[in-house]
Automatic annotation (TrEMBL), chain A:
Keyword annotations: Cell membrane, Membrane, Sugar transport, Transmembrane, Transmembrane helix, Transport
Record field: transmembrane: 14-35, 78-99, 111-131, 143-165, 186-211, 243-266
Any one of the GO CC terms: plasma membrane
UniProt superkingdom: Bacteria
GO biological process, alphabetically ordered: transmembrane transport
Function summary: Part of the ABC transporter complex MalEFGK involved in maltose/maltodextrin import. Probably responsible for the translocation of the substrate across the membrane.
Keyword Transmembrane helix in record: yes
Membrane topology: Multi-pass membrane protein
Protein name (record): Maltose/maltodextrin transport system permease protein MalG
Gene3D superfamilies for the chain: MetI-like (1.10.3720.10)
UniProt subcellular location: Cell membrane
Entries under PANTHER family matching the protein: MALTOSE TRANSPORT SYSTEM PERMEASE-RELATED, MALTOSE_MALTODEXTRIN TRANSPORT SYSTEM PERMEASE PROTEIN MALG
Species assigned in the record: Albidovulum denitrificans
UniProtKB/TrEMBL annotation, chain B:
Transmembrane regions listed in the UniProt entry: 34-60, 91-116, 128-148, 183-202, 222-242, 254-274, 280-305
Manganese as UniProt keyword: no
GO terms classed as biological process: transmembrane transport
Subcellular location: Cell membrane
Species for this entry: Albidovulum denitrificans
Entry similarity comment: Belongs to the binding-protein-dependent transport system permease family.
Primary location: membrane
InterPro entries recorded: MetI-like, MetI-like_sf
Membrane topology (UniProt): Multi-pass membrane protein
Protein known as: Multiple sugar transport system permease protein
GO cellular component: plasma membrane
Keyword Cell membrane in annotation: yes
Amino acid sequence: MAAKRKKSRGENLVLRYLILCGWALFCVVPVLWFLSIGLRPRTEIITPTPIYFPTFSLDAWHMIWEDWPMGKYLRNSVAAIFGSVIIDLILAIPAAYSLSRFQYRGREDIGFYILSTRMMAPAIVAVPIFFLFRNLGLLDTIWALMLIYAAINLSFVTWIIRSYMLDIPKELEDAAKTDGAGELRILWEIIIPAILPGIITASVIAMIFAINEFLFTLLIASTPNAYTMSVALANFTGGSDGIIYNAIALVAFLAFLPVFVVVVAIQKHLSRGLTMGAVKG
Amino acid sequence: MSNSPLSGAGMAQAVPARPAPRSFKRRSKRLKAALPYLLVAPAVIYLLMITLYPGVYAIIQSFHEVKFGPWKPVGFANYQKLFGDYQFWGALWNTLVMGSIALVLQCVIALALAFHAYRDPWVKGWRIIFLVPMLFMPSAVAFIFKLVFLDGRIFSDILIRIGLIDANLAIQSSTWMSRALLILADVWQWTPFLFIIFVAALQGQDEEVEEAARLDGASWPAIFFNISLPMMKPVIAVALILRAIDITTMFTNVFIVTKGGPAFGTETISYFIYRTGFKFFNFGYASAASVIMLILTIVIAQMVVKRAFVSARS
C-alpha cells in the first residue's frame, strides 16, 4: 500500500519534506534545549547571553534526590494515578457495558450526561471541591488526588470502553446466552477479554491526564506532603535564587520517558482513545 | 435496619447465573429490568458528586459573602459586582481571543501536517516525533517557554544574532507579545493532539474513492479539499470541540509563565476564578463567576457537543 502511494505523481515531495521536517525540528529542538538545561550547572542557565555549549554537570540530578524528597513526589504521583485508574475502571466498565449492550429508557441521556462532565472547567468546580475535601478532612492527602483524578477521567474512560464494546458482534453474546450464562458472567468472561486493548488505551490516556493535572493538585496539595511531580515542578524555586531550571528539566524528562514508552506501545489505538471513540483509527 | 442478608442487592447481583427457584422468578425478572440501571448507577452517582454537588454549592455560595468568618447572605450583590467588573470581562475576552487564535492555528497546522504525512512511507515515525511535545507535563512545557522566551532570553538572543532586532524583546511588558507566547506554547504542545486524530481519519477513509479520483486525473490537493475534507468534517468537529474545552480552561501556562500580566492582559477565566478565590479569599465572588461559567458550559454542551458526537458516530 505504501509503495502504491509513493508512486503518486505530480506531488511536490520537496515541499512535503520541508513542512514535515520543519515541524519536527520545531517539536524537538526546544526539548533538546531543555535537556541540555538539565545537564548543566545552575550558573550557566540564566546568563547575560545564553550559553549554547555548556559544561556537562549532574548537579541537578543530585539536587532532586538529595535536596528534595523527589522519591516521595514520585511515589505520590504513582499512587494517586494508579489508584484513580483503578477507581475509573471499576466504575466505567459496568457503566460502559450498560450503555452499549442494553436498550432502556434514558440511556442516551445518561450517556451524554457522563460525556458532558468532561466539559466542566476545573476552575468552575475548584472552589466547592476545595471546601468538600476540607470538610472531609482530605486536603493535602493523596486520597483526595486519587478521587479527583478518577472523577476527571471517568467520562473519557467510560466512553472509550463503550466504543470498544459496541464493536463486539452480538452473536458472541447470544451464543453465551443460549448456554445459560448470566449478564455479568458474559461481561466478565467474554466482553472484558475481547476489549482488553480498549481498556488499556483508556487507562493510558487516563494516566496521561492524571499526570498532567495541575489546578486541583495545586489547590488540594498545599504542602509537599501530597505534591505530585506536576505541582512539585512549579515549586522548584530556591527563594531568592529564583527558579531552579535544571532540576525542573530533569524531573520533566523523568516523567516524560515512561509516558513516551507507553504511548508508543499503544500508538495504534491513540486516535480512537483521544476522541473518546468517535474516530476509529 | 436488620434486614435479612438475602435482601441486599449485592447478593442478588452476585448469583444471577445460577438457576433460581420458582419463587424467585418474578424478582429476578424485575432485577433484570433494573440491571442496566444498576450497572451505570455507580458511575453516575460518582459524577453527580463532583458536578451536581459543587454546582449547587457554588450557586448557594454565590449569594453570600464568604471570606474567613461565617457566610453572610448578600443577595445578588456578587453578580452585580461581577457584571460591572472589567477584570471579569477582560478575562472572558482574553480566554476567547487567545483560545480562538490558538485553536485556528492548531487546526490549520495539524491539517497541513496530516495531509502531507498520511501518504508518507514514514508516517509512523512522523507520528512519534510530533507526539513528543504533547507528552510533557503542561507545567514542564510552561517552564520551557518561560526559559526560552523570558528568563533565558534565548529567543531574543537568536534574533539579535540574525540581526532582526537590536536589543532584548520586552515580552513581559507587552500584552500582545505575552498573549502570543501563551498561544505559541499551546500550539506547540497540542497541535499533535489534532494531528494524530486527523491522520487516523485520513488513513481510515475509503481508498477506492481516492483511487477513482486519481484515475480521473484529480490532483492530491483537489482530492483533499473535495473528498477527504468533507468526509472528515464530523471528526474535525469532535476533535476541535475537545480541544476547545481544554483551551478555554487554560490555567497552567498562565500560572507559570505570565501570572495573568501585564495588567491582566493574559488573565484567563480560570485564572480569574483562582485569583479571586484562592489569593484574595473572596470565595462568594469566585463562586458567582463559576456559576456564570457553568451556565455557559451547559448551554454550549447542549447546543454543540451533543450534535457533534452523534454525527461523528453515524
